[in-house]
Design goal:
The protein is α+β, with helices and mostly antiparallel strands. The protein folds into three domains: about 45 residues, Up-down Bundle (Transferase, Pyrimidine Nucleoside Phosphorylase, Chain A, domain 3), CATH 1.20.970; about 230 residues, Nucleoside phosphorylase/phosphoribosyltransferase catalytic domain (Pyrimidine Nucleoside Phosphorylase, Chain A, domain 2), CATH 3.40.1030.10; about 90 residues, Pyrimidine nucleoside phosphorylase-like, C-terminal domain (Aldehyde Oxidoreductase, domain 3), CATH 3.90.1170. Helix content is about 45%, strand content about 15%. A five-stranded mixed β-sheet has the order 1-4-5-13-14, with helices on both faces. Helix 9 packs across helix 10. The protein is globular and about 65 Å long. About 50% of the residues are buried.
């Protein structure tokens, strides 16, 4: 088999076979196919696209290119959650203990933040002593004993995806549904869970800017999940503004704790309940979504989910006292209010620019080796639809670099657009995509 023939075949618009796709992925991962030929094939895929079978085979090949977690020693149905990424996306910190408190095992492998998208691992490491480097045996034992554990991603998890994504990033071939879906799902499937709930973000702070493209991506990923015999459901959610109020690692941990105390922002609380309900349902701990939701809300309101979070933190070496005293989290040396210069109503927020402002303050990484300031970030004081008066604080900045406050404040002020008349708040849950049905909310 020659990679030249595979490139030519896809360039001419023909479908690739499973053997051809596996050959390409395996040989490229081993270093036997040069970047220039891999780039040529990616460009051919970009223009000619892939059908469902090709996309599934590509996902499979990338999944099996490295480690595949064996969670068979964990009791019960393992359900994973994946978000396509956004600004202030704190849901894992709330959803994982909520689901675990419902007797569903949460064996989660998470990543670090890159660019303006935050990482769950960084957020958890804001808690003094918390460590994410567990042995496989300890990881499994923690899930069996406490129903929850979160570890960092294995370096050898879907290595083909890492190589191909780096190449896509420099060859203008990122924006292809099959390549996006297979990249996301190869890592989720390699993480070993029995079922997957996908949180597909749509809006100015997300990769998918509109609902139609979000639904297309969701369908691709749901199809891949079912091809691999994993029950998969996608929930399309708003990223037209930051989720909750907090953006930044320790700030988001504090907000997550408040949410687990049933005192958090309404949008973060509602999305967390929704995601957790679908996970509990897929784990067959409730016979319907409605009954799963009732269980989840009961465990939030009773404090069971908060207790589970505390137990989880302690099990991974963190200081559980942070649950009662969030002042134990890292604190920034400098704060500044971003003040509104006129009256109006918040009409829209350029959410990705809010994320960039948080990055400048120190909350994110320019590249994977950049240092990160766990105390840095932003707390939004206004959301879309809110009334604003001249002189109101629209956001509070936190950093240990006083010299960047002016720049970050300017970016935030430009990212928030006002109107003279009232504005309707955006719908949080936009659609549900299952194997056979798309429900627009």
């Amino acid at each position: 088999m020659r990679v030249y023939d595979i490139i030519l075949k896809k360039r001419e618009g023909y479908s690739l076979t499973k053997d051809e796709i596996y050959y390409f992925v395996n040989e490229y991962t081993k270093g036997n196919i040069p970047d220039y030929q891999a780039a040529a094939l990616l460009m051919a895929i970009f223009f000619q696209k892939m059908n469902k079978e090709e996309t599934a085979y590509l996902t499979e090949a990338m999944m099996y290119s490295g480690d595949v977690l064996d969670l068979s020693k964990i009791e019960g149905i393992k359900v994973d959650k994946h978000s396509t990424g956004g600004v202030g996306d704190t849901t894992t910190l709330v959803v994982a203990p909520l689901v675990a408190s419902c007797n569903v095992p949460v064996a989660k492998m998470s990543g670090r933040g890159l660019g303006h998208t935050g990482g769950t691992i960084d957020k958890l490491e804001s808690i003094q002593g918390f460590h994410v480097e567990l042995s496989n045996e300890q990881f499994i034992n923690n899930v069996n004993q406490f129903k929850i554990a979160v570890i960092g991603q294995s370096a050898n998890l879907a290595p083909a995806d890492k190589k191909l994504y780096a190449l896509r990033d420099v060859t203008a071939t990122v924006d292809n549904l099959s390549l996006i879906a297979s990249s996301i799902m190869s890592k989720k499937l390699a993480a070993g869970s029995n079922a997957i709930v996908l949180d597909v973000k749509v809006g100015s702070g997300a990769f998918m800017k509109d609902l139609d493209s979000g639904i297309e991506l969701a369908k691709e990923m749901v199809d891949i999940g079912h091809h691999m015999h994993r029950e998969t459901i996608a929930i399309l959610t708003s990223m037209e503004q930051p989720l909750g109020f907090a953006i930044g690692n320790s700030l988001e941990v504090e907000e997550a704790i408040q949410t687990l105390k049933n005192r958090g922002p309404e949008d973060l609380k509602e999305l967390s309940i929704t995601l957790a309900s679908y996970m509990v349902f897929l784990a067959k701990e409730a016979p319907s979504i409605a009954e799963a939701r009732t269980m989840v809300i009961n465990h939030l309101e009773s404090g069971k989910a908060l207790s589970k979070f505390k137990e989880f933190v302690q099990a991974q070496g963190g200081d559980p006292a942070v649950v009662e005293d969030t002042n134990l989290l890292p604190k920034a040396a400098y704060t500044r209010e971003v003040i509104a210069l006129e009256d109006g109503y918040i009409q829209s927020i350029q959410t990705d620019n809010i994320g960039i402002a948080a990055l400048i303050l120190g909350a994110g990484r320019e590249n994977k080796n950049s240092p990160i300031d766990l105390s840095a970030g932003i707390v939004m004081n206004k959301k879309i639809g809110d009334t604003v008066h001249k002189g109101d604080s629209i956001a509070t900045l936190y950093t240990n670099k006083a010299e960047v406050l002016e720049q970050a404040g300017s970016i935030i002020r430009k990212a928030i657009h006002l109107s003279e008349g009232p504005v309707q708040k955006p719908r949080l849950i936009k659609a549900i995509v299952s194997k056979d049905h798309v429900q627009i909310m």
